[in-house]
Write a structure and sequence with these properties.
With 40 residues, this protein is an alpha+beta fold. It is flat.
Length: 40
Amino acid sequence: MNPPLMLREIIEALVFQSDEMAAYLNTRTGQISTSSDEEV
């Protein structure tokens, strides 16, 4: 079973997202990670 996700964490990741940044959700771990265009 996948770990529960906090809606607040998802909303915060979306709020801080911009044209230069993207947020990704790992559905197995429930971890949200962000990366910028420079990192990719």
